[in-house]
Amino acid sequence: MSDLSREQCVKPQKGMPPLSGNEVDNLLPLAEGWLVIDSEEVPKLQKTFRFKRYKDALDFVVAVGWAADEQDHHPKITIEYGKVTVEWWTHVINGLHRNDFIMAAKTDEIYRSREDTKPRIS
Ligand SMILES: C[C@H](O)[C@H](O)[C@H]1CNC2=NC(N)=NC(=O)C2=N1
Question: What residue intervals traverse the membrane (predicted)?
Answer without folding.
Answer: none
